[in-house]
Amino acid sequence: MDSAGSRDRTDDPSTAGAGNAAERAEPVGQPGAEGAPDAASAVGEVAELTAALAVARAEAEERLDAWKRARADYENLKRRSVTEVEERAAHARGALLLEFLPIVDNFERAFRADRVEDADAWAEGISLIEKEIVQFLERLGVRPIAAQGHVFDPNVHEAVGQAPGPDNEVVAEVRKGYVLGVRVLRPAMVIVGQSGDACATNSESTSE
After folding, report:
1. Which is more confident, 189 or 199?
2. What string of DSSP letters covers 13-33?
3. C-alpha separations of 77 from 7, 69, 72, 74, 87 in Å
4. Which of 165, 177, 179, 197 is deepest in the core (most CB within 10 A)?
5. Please, what are the domains in the chain?
6. In the prediction, which pLDDT does 21 show?
7. CA 190, 195, 200: angle at the middle one, nearest 5?
8. What is the gyration radius of the CA atoms in the chain, in angstroms?
9. pLDDT for 102-128, tens place per residue?
């Protein structure tokens, strides 16, 4: 009897369906169990990003401070350099003037001397002063440009007129020119020679 009853309950379709439904039913009371790890991971990433941002800000502030210090050092160095250059230039000018002052003294003595009673001595004194000036310029590397009797050179000569004489030759110097090393300080103003035929042609064209 018992075995038969057991078979009847087992073979009952309604009972079997209820059992399968109970097996398929999900546990109640655990709806957030699968989402909890994702939320914890997001919180961890936010914390990491916040920490990285703080580190980046600290590095940026440190680099900004270093840049400000470097800029201040550069400005100070530039001011010191300008001051040193000005001081060196002033020292060079002072040394140059000290070297030139004796020539000024000689000029003053020459102008105070009596030119009438001792004209020859006065003229000789002026000539010596001229030599001192030339020597002073030579010590600075300044030399006069050769002009009269030389071939006209537009690099160092400035023609201000023409006169009878050998073609393209400097026949007169109007104002002396000077070079400093290889650089022309000012060209020599000169009169350039022209042959007789050329002068006559120029005179005729000018009169016309």
Report:
1. 189
2. HHHHHHHHHHHHPPPTT-TTT
3. 106, 12, 9, 5, 15
4. 177
5. 43-140 (3.90.20), 142-208 (2.30.22.10)
6. 43
7. 105
8. 53
9. 999 998 888 888 777 778 888 888 899
